[in-house]
Give the backbone structure.
Amino acid sequence: MTTVYNPNTCYKAISTPLLIISTEKIDIQLIDWNLRTAIDGNRARKFPAVTIRTFAVLFKIISGIEYFCDEYYYFGEDRNCQEAYCIVFPPPPNHQIVQNAYIVGHDHGVGKLGSICKKQKANCTIRMELPLITATSVKCNHESDIHKLSMDSGVRTAHPVLRVDNVFRVFFADNITGVAAVQQKLKFTGKGIKVGVIDNGIDFHHPAFGNCFATPGCRIITGFDFIGNGTPENPQPNPIPLETCDGHGTHVAGIIAADDPIKHFTGVAPEAQLGIYRISNCDAETSDDIIIAAMGRAQKDGMDIINLSIGHDFFSWPEDPLAVAASKLSDSGIAVSVAASNEGNEGIFTLGTPDSGANVITVGAVQNTKFFTFFLTANVAPKRKIIYETTRVTLWFGLSGPLPIKPTSTQPITPNDACTNVTEDFTGFIALIARGTCTFTQKLQNAEAAGAVGVLFYNNDDVQAFAISVVNDIPSAFISKKDGLFLLDEYNSNHNVIVSFPNKTIIVDAQIATQPLNESGFGPTFELDLKPDFLAPGGLIFSTFPENLGSYATLSGTSMAAAYMSGTIALFLQAKGKTDPKRIRDIFQTTAIPEEMRNLNQESLGMLHTVAKQGGGLINAFNAIQSEIIITPGKLPLNDTPHFNGTASFRIKNLSKNTKNFVLSHKPAASARGFFGGELVPLANTLFDPFYAKVVIQPSSISLKPGSTITIKLKITPPAQLDPQDFGLYSGYILIKNTDKSGKSGKSQNQVGKYHKRSTNKHTDGNHKHIDSYSNGNHKHNLDDEYNNHEDKNNHKSNHKSNHKSNHKGSRRSNHKNNHKNNQTDNDEDYEDNDNDHNNGTFSGLFEFGELDPNEEFTVPYLGLKGDLRAFPVLGLDPNTDSPFIVDNSNGNEFFNSSEVIPFNFLGNDFPTLVYTMILGSPLVRTLLVIANTNTIVGTVFQDTFVRRNDALNGDVSFFDWNGTVLMGNSSIPTPVPDGSYQFILEALHIFGNPNNQSDFITWRSPVLVVQNSASNQTSVVPSNQTSSNEKKVAVAIS
């Protein structure tokens, strides 16, 4: 019997929020302001206030730290706590920032800020110089010190240093991008081009990188480790950027430039030189000043290209320091390839920083065409190869067999299959279990308790088998619905089904080949810039991995797409020479191939993907390099309705020696509506419709002589079907088609002579865990940790109403922490072709292509928003979903209404926390303190500029703890307020709003805060997230 938790006795002895887990029923409750939130993996999920049942024992708190609740803890004199609960402390509030560390923009020059700190009597020390953005990062003893420093006339800004936890945005692709044609026909390999990889380091002992670092003849010519074994708070730089604990950087570098003489595996640009800059430790922790310092070092080292498969999600502002730094690199002549966010499943406006940088190349991801996978066989059909995935794509099951299987339910796709105790004896059997209702982990544990030696899960929909995340002590794998029902039928017929797991792989067709990954970031930026710029292969990408983790791995994400693009740019630069990065972006945008929306059967849905998802489309390296036409600009962001006058234009220049004739036409793309009921909705609930703009093109046919340029003028009318109140996105392409040709399709990248695909035989994956998400082009298939019910994951509209209280993690990487199975593949085993007949395909290594003319078709993407973005409710005010509220930390109570009264004495936990939700980003968010029930301003509680949106669908909120002080007038020192009754006025400026026009703010008035005995009780209070007043341009993060 589980002891009942008594918050009145337990909570008084505990000074921080708690996650409390029952040791008997594994029930969960959250106390304090985190009430009604449980942690699923490393993402916050919403649950009702009642106890949550049957949750996994292993939890990963927001910080990424794993806890196993196998001990009892108690506090004070309450023995019930000791007997009933495992208690885990989540990270403290404001864990997104490096405490009291700031990036200070100033005009004093490198090495000068230290003396200014002394002059201003600010107790701050220098963390690192950031000349790329004319700034210095500092660490101060107290928050008041940064206010002192900010009063210096040469100090422009002071942004807090942000922690960027889990930052990373994770070859058959070559024949869908023209890269194979460039390598084989044009013979370009990236030779002489330097690519800087800012990531988590590299295993340079890998043969694909020459087993060397920065020695004569080594392809890794330079690098640096900016964090070492330290943390963002206390980095420990090291001259050697070696990394063997995670693999992300090794995988990314391999996509760009691997050349393995043993396995004969090569990257996109196998003769490019690499600079490796390690900015993240083994816990995937870093900070923005560390990243900016690495950018500056790469620039100093003479890199031609910099790859940034990293970022901070939902900060979709080009003014963010990371975005500014990346854009400055581009302005200096370095091509910067940046991964779009991996938050596309959350719908529109899900990009971040630095991918929103104005001049960077922002890359989204498409699915590969084929991938390697293991298979099992059954005695009832020995020639049938049933593909499966374990906790990562291309990872062996771990048991060879032969072993008998037995279903936990003989009925097909039982909804709650194995969600309760399995009563039948499964000793010696592999359990066959249908997906649905409860977690993979729960099903596995119930089967294991019944004696099962392994588990085969089968899908409950038609999606291809994918990697799963499961906490397991016995092997487990996932197979398709078709294969699962086949095994179930055979068992029901003869009860004698024996399976074996060969240590071999086969090549399988990806179900949604060339379609944008659902998780690939969805534009536009908050200021309606057209992003991403285009797409590159990022799903199911096979590449190098640390040798101790298996040498090779298959990973997915925009990280892989950005790396693929970096390698492609290296080929381009070798072919074309030094080129303005913005020109490179224009060329690749206008030679890319817009992708059609297709279903799981690859049947067309009759619409192109919105430009907000795919930018220019899938890159075509051969066309980009061979193009004799330059189109500028390469994209047309049309802004919102009040800021668009209905016209646009671009220029076409003929670089060839021949006159070229073109006709121009309009290719519309699907409209996208993702704002309903006052909130942004996930991709699964986003509507895509054939609502098209009307476009008039002048002139619509042209004849261009050699060296001549013409301006094309457009008149664009937004779709009549879109309601301005929905803030719908409309988009499309201007097609420029060469009429001198014979009518062959020119925008096909699969047409170049006859040649052999480079070998990828005899490669294996390591023992590493990875979670993939799959897309069918217009519907969400979210495969997150623990929650495996497909139907539940695809309906978010009703399950994100009850909770607003969680911290944003800022993750851009796919989760591939260590998988503790010891099941490495035999490296000497050849990959086989799959001879199955159920959508697995074959691969011979030989392709037949016809004649290719890269100058036949070009496209220019455009994107606009119908409606006035100044009317978009950037701040949530709905009391049922996302209204701001005050938390009384002394008891966890929440207060929403301005008529409520809450006393605080600021002793211990007796202080208020303001919690609020940013539906969209805001250029300016501030909180003023006023005398209760008046508009008389006492001072500024905090002010922040270019604020991120919250991922409200996953419980992410903004918040700050108030310590009873404000900034008054021009004072730089926080001043305690006297006893009295006050209220917060929370204000968020609409995008494109005027900060001097009060009507451009959306505001909220708090409950009455009664300050009692404040002057003598300012100790033992959690530091606040205060910023300066309006008079100083100092921005400090809210959350």
Q: What stands out?
A: The CA atoms of residues 697 and 714 lie 5 Å apart. The radius of gyration is 29 Å. The chain has 16 helices and 63 strands.
